[in-house]
């Protein structure tokens, strides 16, 4: 019997239009106090493929689907006590599998880097895969049927059209965005910059957010804007911060397994010439985001995307997507809380855990935020020079400084 192919969705297609410039992969990182059982990890990956069979496939750019290619868990799991080569975490999704798990062993402590195709899943989808993987790791002998994985958003997209109709006149093409990192012609290398907010710092930030009647995300975005205000040229007055929105909460069943791309976008305009402090900036952002949420702005353009994908050749659909969707040089994503009750490996103590976006070629810069066990990690994966990495580190540390200054 012929192996089954797996067709991509319209939202998956968005992640493919800039593949010549970057490899769309999302990353999770976990550090343990002790060591993993590698055989159990192989078994967990093998069983997870009952639910997400695409992980053993290569991606066909021409046909926008995943094709079985004979990969197995040895193709996915890489164990080493040495530094890995770049192609273990940045690889060609058209010739390799859609998942890689790198296990680093240092004495009797393991760290794992989970790399999943962004064509297959967004950050929230990666977390759902990790929870699924943990359930199989923790119960290696438990026979359970494969969970159904829902990957389509068409129902929710078209259901929200009546709410969007009065705002369709606001549909606009993307404009040229601001560049934050310096240009540099030296050789670009994959590098990561990150910083953390401790549990005590997070508790104080949460308390301040409650006092202001806003969300933590509002404060994070305000701190990001304030950091840019201090680092951009003085004549730069306006910026736009793209903020991804998880569309799953608009679906019929929010408990459904959705290892997929289900991300819309808000774009928050910020006037840097305003003499705002971080709290005033956060309240301004809160009001702007609240307005966009009531107007379902996160669904902007998605109905047209679904129609174009359904009726046009894939090559034409990609041209239209590229016209309306750009990879912004400055961007932001908050994956949110990582559930410590679901992300656990048979009682192994986890000392560090975070999710980060793809390795973006500098000067493009994306701030990724995730929180595990009330410790918040701010990170950015960059294809950059050392000079650009240092600039990216200054951005992240300035964001942290803005937050703890309250």
What can you tell me about this protein's structure?
With 406 residues, the chain is an alpha+beta fold. The radius of gyration is 21 Å and the shape is globular. It has twelve helices and 15 strands. Strand 14 and strand 15 form a beta hairpin. The protein starts with 5 loop residues before the first strand and ends with a helix. Strands 5-6-7-2-12 form a five-stranded mixed sheet. The protein folds into two domains: 133 residues, Chloramphenicol Acetyltransferase (2-Layer Sandwich); 193 residues, Nonribosomal peptide synthetase, condensation domain (Chloramphenicol Acetyltransferase).
Topology:
Blueprint: E1 6-7, H1 10-14, E2 25-32, H2 38-48, E3 57-60, E4 65-68, H3 73-76, E5 77-80, E6 99-106, E7 109-117, H4 123-138, H5 154-159, H6 161-164, E8 189-197, H7 199-212, H8 216-231, E9 238-246, E10 263-271, H9 278-294, H10 302-311, H11 314-324, E11 330-338, E12 350-356, E13 360-361, E14 365-372, E15 375-384, H12 386-404
Parallel strand pairs: 5-6, 11-14, 13-15
Antiparallel strand pairs: 1-4, 2-7, 2-12, 3-4, 6-7, 8-15, 9-10, 14-15
Radius of gyration: 21 Å
What is the rounded distance between the termini? 63 Å
**Individual helix count:** 12
Provide the domain count. 2
Query: Secondary-structure element sequence?
Result: EHEHEEHEEEHHHEHHEEHHHEEEEEH
Number of strands: 15
Q: What does this entry show, briefly?
A:
This protein is α+β, with helices and mostly antiparallel strands and 406 residues long. It has 12 helices and 15 strands. It is globular and about 60 Å long.
